[in-house]
From TrEMBL:
<comment type="similarity">
    <text>Belongs to the Gfo/Idh/MocA family.</text>
</comment>
<dbReference type="Pfam" id="PF02894">
    <property type="entry name" value="GFO_IDH_MocA_C"/>
</dbReference>
<dbReference type="GO" id="GO:0000166">
    <property type="term" value="F:nucleotide binding"/>
</dbReference>
<dbReference type="InterPro" id="IPR000683">
    <property type="entry name" value="Gfo/Idh/MocA-like_OxRdtase_N"/>
</dbReference>
<dbReference type="InterPro" id="IPR051317">
    <property type="entry name" value="Gfo/Idh/MocA_oxidoreduct"/>
</dbReference>
<protein>
    <submittedName>
        <fullName>1,5-anhydro-D-fructose reductase</fullName>
        <ecNumber>1.1.1.292</ecNumber>
    </submittedName>
</protein>
<dbReference type="Pfam" id="PF01408">
    <property type="entry name" value="GFO_IDH_MocA"/>
</dbReference>
<dbReference type="GO" id="GO:0033712">
    <property type="term" value="F:1,5-anhydro-D-fructose reductase (1,5-anhydro-D-mannitol-forming) activity"/>
</dbReference>
<keyword id="KW-0560">Oxidoreductase</keyword>
<feature type="domain" description="Gfo/Idh/MocA-like oxidoreductase C-terminal">
    <location>
        <begin position="162"/>
        <end position="359"/>
    </location>
</feature>
<feature type="domain" description="Gfo/Idh/MocA-like oxidoreductase N-terminal">
    <location>
        <begin position="21"/>
        <end position="141"/>
    </location>
</feature>
<dbReference type="InterPro" id="IPR004104">
    <property type="entry name" value="Gfo/Idh/MocA-like_OxRdtase_C"/>
</dbReference>
<dbReference type="InterPro" id="IPR036291">
    <property type="entry name" value="NAD(P)-bd_dom_sf"/>
</dbReference>
């Protein structure tokens, strides 16, 4: 293989050597049942216990995934001293109380919490502080970083193959399935979906200095919401600009017109250019994400391909990283502390759209 080629180690997550941690799952909804547990099982990682709000839901998911212990509620799961790692996927406005209860137990070593880390930066800070005080390693499930194309692009950037980053754009034209609990938050897009794209830009380029965000409401969504279709410009002092368009309306495709759905991104640097697609909008069909790149040093297109997909395969990544970090007494890349910057960026987007002006991320982080 010539230089400047991507290999599986660049797009697949590490599989932890030590898998004897005992995982308790809190939440048994879509993401836990159809993504987390499916990806873990494929790697030989099996949860020990599960609890949901509704006992019957937990029983059904336990039966489907061969989970030996089902608890009537999450407090009972937390009482089991054998469980030392939590995998939490509950609505964001339920997360803080679950973490508060978890931090009162002294047998827990690690927590993987689904994004967003609470309803805002203030809650995220409380969650991070609670885990630090309890000596629990907290990691946030910002799993788009583990999408195979995103991860491969991260490798290109970390090796400097693209040179100095000049411009990055990401265009989402897709209709996600919305969860009923979003209605009580009044969020359609930014804190639920755009958070992935904002966090991915952070993974690629670090935290921007400022963001300008503009929202327009989504004509299909029946409940009152603050966001809807989201447009974002991220400004970096280096000169780099990132632009994200999250169009969750994507035209009247559900209303009878033809659909043209997908997610495309493009990264331009002084020494190369990469363009990718994210296959997730086709889920449950398995459409792998793609990446192509061209470099001044090679003068041709490089087109690595794989059969893995974000949903569900990439969900091994965040748990594998947490288990590896626990075994080595380290933090993960998506630690709670790191995620405060993603949460600050998201809060800055809502503030920017409301005030119709660019917002510095530091001003939100340090407010
Ligand atoms: N790519 C990603 O990383 C994705 C992340 N997510 C995140 O995962 C979390 C869970 O999402 P998802 O699984 O799709 O949601 P679901 O609605 O499918 O599941 C929610 C789970 O939380 C439980 N729950 C506890 N309290 C409540 C409550 N007050 N209202 C509603 N449910 C409650 C539900 O219990 P029960 O059903 O027993 O009543 C269920 O087990 C969210 O934070 C979401 O943002 C979601 C999708 C994709
Ligand atoms: O994180 C997410 C990614 O995709 C889902 C769409 O099916 C969203 O619901 C979501 O919260």
């Amino acid at each position: 293989m010539s230089d400047y080629e991507i290999t599986p180690a660049d797009y697949l997550p590490p599989v932890p050597e030590v898998t004897d941690f005992r995982i308790g799952c809190i939440g048994a909804g879509f993401i836990m049942a159809d993504c987390h547990l499916v990806a873990y099982a494929a790697a030989g990682i099996h949860a020990t216990g599960i609890a949901s709000r509704t006992h019957h839901t937990a029983q059904q998911v336990a039966a489907r995934h061969d989970i030996p212990s089902v608890y009537a509620d999450y407090h009972q799961l937390l009482d089991n001293q054998d469980i030392n790692v939590l995998d939490i996927a509950v609505p964001p406005d339920c997360l803080l109380e679950v973490i508060q209860a978890a931090c009162q137990r002294d047998h827990l070593r690690g927590i993987l919490a689904q994004k967003p880390l609470g309803v805002n930066l203030s809650e995220a800070k409380q969650i991070v502080a609670l885990c630090q005080q309890a000596g629990i390693t907290l990691s946030v499930n910002q799993n788009m970083r583990y999408d195979q194309s995103v991860r491969a692009a991260t490798s290109l950037l970390r090796r400097d193959w693209l040179g100095d980053p000049v411009l990055a754009t990401l265009d989402m034209r897709a209709i996600p399935h919305w969860m009923p609990w979003q209605q009580r938050q009044g969020w359609v897009t930014c804190r639920i979906m755009s958070i992935h794209h904002l966090d991915t830009m952070r993974c690629w380029f670090g935290t921007p200095q400022r963001v300008f965000a503009s929202f327009r409401t989504d004509p299909r969504t029946q409940f009152a919401h603050q966001d809807g279709i989201g447009l974002y410009i991220l400004e970096y002092d280096s000169g780099l600009r990132c632009q994200i368009c999250d169009d969750v309306w994507a035209g009247p495709a559900r209303e009878g017109a033809q659909a043209d759905l997908g997610i495309h991104y493009r990264l331009e640097g002084t020494e190369g250019m990469a363009k990718g697609t994210i296959g997730w909008p086709k889920y449950p069909e398995r459409e792998p994400s793609t990446l192509e790149y061209t470099l001044t040093k090679t003068g041709r297109w490089h087109q690595p391909r794989w059969n893995h997909v974000w949903f569900p395969d990439a969900f091994l990544g965040p748990m594998a990283e947490l288990l590896t970090a626990l075994a080595n007494d380290q933090q993960t890349e998506t630690s709670g502390q790191d995620n405060l910057q993603t949460m600050a960026l998201v809060d800055a987007c809502y503030l920017s759209a409301k005030q119709q002006q660019a917002i510095s991320i530091d001003s939100v982080l340090n407010a």
